[in-house]
Amino acid sequence: MKALRIGIVGLGRGFMLTLPALRAHPRVEIAAAFDLRASPRAQFTREFGAKSYESLEGLLAADIDAVYIATPHELHATQAIAALGAGKHVLVEKPMAISVAECVAMEAAARRAGKLLLVGPSHGFDAPVRRAAELIASGGFGAVRQLTAMNFTDFMYRPRRPEELDSARGGGVVYSQAAHQIDVARRLVGRDVTFVRAVAGNWDSSRPSEGAYAAMMGFEGGAVASLTYSGYAHYDSDELVNWISELGREKDPEQYGDTRRALRNLEPATESAAKIRRAYGEDGASTSEPPAPYHEHFGFVLVSCERADLKLSPQGITLYGDEHREFLAIDPPSLPRVEVIDEFVEGALGLVQPIHDGRWGVKTVACCAALLESSRTGSEIAPTAMIIDTLEAVSV
Amino acid sequence: MKALRIGIVGLGRGFMLTLPALRAHPRVEIAAAFDLRASPRAQFTREFGAKSYESLEGLLAADIDAVYIATPHELHATQAIAALGAGKHVLVEKPMAISVAECVAMEAAARRAGKLLLVGPSHGFDAPVRRAAELIASGGFGAVRQLTAMNFTDFMYRPRRPEELDSARGGGVVYSQAAHQIDVARRLVGRDVTFVRAVAGNWDSSRPSEGAYAAMMGFEGGAVASLTYSGYAHYDSDELVNWISELGREKDPEQYGDTRRALRNLEPATESAAKIRRAYGEDGASTSEPPAPYHEHFGFVLVSCERADLKLSPQGITLYGDEHREFLAIDPPSLPRVEVIDEFVEGALGLVQPIHDGRWGVKTVACCAALLESSRTGSEIAPTAMIIDTLEAVSV
């Protein structure tokens, strides 16, 4: 059985969250890594007996088949294009990149190379989303007509690196968080987005980036999605999903305000360091936590089809039919994010046609860009038109 | 203390729901009634020792100061204009009427007569809405930025008269139900609506009218509201408000599907009759139910201000501040809808400046009309422009 030798680009928090699934996959070999920091490189070499590099060029020259890119958003495009150019399959964290033009260039590089470009993890991969999408696509409930999703988190007050709060560098909640919600909605509706109308909010001058939005997305065939998000750490919508956290763990509702209090007690100069402490190979971080008992999720998600509503939860799906209601339990995850690694490995080995490939990723980023553009201009934006305009600009 | 002698226009279900508050108000005298049906007229005369009429003209010639109009939507405008022309104050059920032009004519009639035109009951009057609006208006939480409201009910499958499912006659959920949600949102945000973008859905050909919608409303100052509604009797959002029904009573979640089953067992020819049985003076109806223990509500309502979120419930308001969360209990209602009768009586007697007057009502109906027009045309509609266009058409 042929294994995929994967090189890790960025030994940060993303890598830590995906590591259990990478490590456990029978067809994955964690073969090498690149990071600018010496400490996680040393830890990586100790833990995996594999070489680590202080440059991306070094990693790409190593004996690997693929890379997993888990670096800051603004580096995704350059790194992915370099890896594809070197003949590697690429798994890149969402957001795929921070502009439609970057995504188009990445997808073009993947086609030139004849290699897989997959965008994940995102909550569009979560098992309840996948199961609901399959049920909906089977047609038994009639067409999807409405989707209602909302998520209220403390995103804006977790320790952040400067670029994470800089809109010009893909900061704020749109590229980072709307990308999840849009992926979930697109996966469930199963059609292309025709328009986005949105208002994004920048409500706290001490954290000056978009921290909230309300968006309406129209789909081919007429379905409509209402997406609401706030990262301002007030209401917590995890109460609507049985007090299970985004990462599938039980959550204590009494810890209200903890994130903001912790940030208040942090010197501004040490905020980036506080984030790094949660990354791979650092003091505060552990890769030995037990796996989460529930599926990951992205808040309240309700899909209305003509003959039934479906409500997603970290434990399964509630089906609201004409006269009967039924809960479809979904077995707890073996490991978080295993669906992503499955899709990447099987896609790279040519065993399945992946869903979340570069074409998929361009469209989600186009929706994010349309969301911001709609908010800026006060008008409706067609994400497909943004992609076409970019393609024309590139071909000129 | 001067009392207001009120004549009832339409002894139906609306009258029954408002009757306890009318009867208990120290300044209200239920003085006369008009209905086309003999049986409720007889019941009315027995119960109140007051005269009832089989024509509106008869009622308007009686010794009354005001009327309460609780008839089918399409009759509101004609009846209100007649009553105002006869020098009576008018309380008219929502929707005020089923077109902007009708509403403009009603408001013009009120001004000519120098009488009060009040639109209610609607859930915009509910005590938690009022309290939250006052808290928000006091400014302590910063500006309102986002409002998220959703309500999933069985509206479309309750017994209906034919016009209630005929869009051309103001049927479907928009005039009947969006009018509530828009009133709630407008009251909480406290600013005029600048645009409506919406998709209304007509998903069941056996009940052919708009049964659901998703709407985005923008407000002066930049706030945005996301309003979602489905009356298709699948998911029930009362689970998000502690399983308390719209009318403030405890609800059994195990009665899933009952409304649709009951309708299925009804002969189509007897559906209107089934509705009438729930009206005043009919066998199945009772005016002696104990008052509801909780406030009325219109589903999930969350308001995001710059420095706090507020979540409404039938028991009070949860305030989600920066570091603390607090529940503001609101005393249970003495009687349902007493706020409406208070505002009407005090407004008619010149003691207060009413909020939900004809000017208010025109704007809510303009938002309903804009919602339908946006859905029909696929474009954003400014409700104010609809009012101005109507005024110009009238003045020509």
From TrEMBL, chains A, B:
GO terms for molecular function: nucleotide binding; phthalate 4,5-cis-dihydrodiol dehydrogenase activity. Gene3D superfamilies: Dihydrodipicolinate Reductase, domain 2, NAD(P)-binding Rossmann-like Domain. Keywords: Oxidoreductase. Residues 4-120 form the Gfo/Idh/MocA-like oxidoreductase N-terminal domain. It is an enzyme of class 1 (oxidoreductase). InterPro entries: Gfo/Idh/MocA-like_OxRdtase_N, Gfo/Idh/MocA_Oxidoreductases, GFO_IDH_MocA-like_dom, NAD(P)-bd_dom_sf. SUPFAM superfamilies: Glyceraldehyde-3-phosphate dehydrogenase-like, C-terminal domain, NAD(P)-binding Rossmann-fold domains. The keyword Lipid biosynthesis does not apply. Its EC number is 1.3.1.64. Residues 129-237 form the GFO/IDH/MocA-like oxidoreductase domain. PANTHER family: BILIVERDIN REDUCTASE A. This is Phthalate 4,5-cis-dihydrodiol dehydrogenase. It comes from Sphingobium subterraneum.
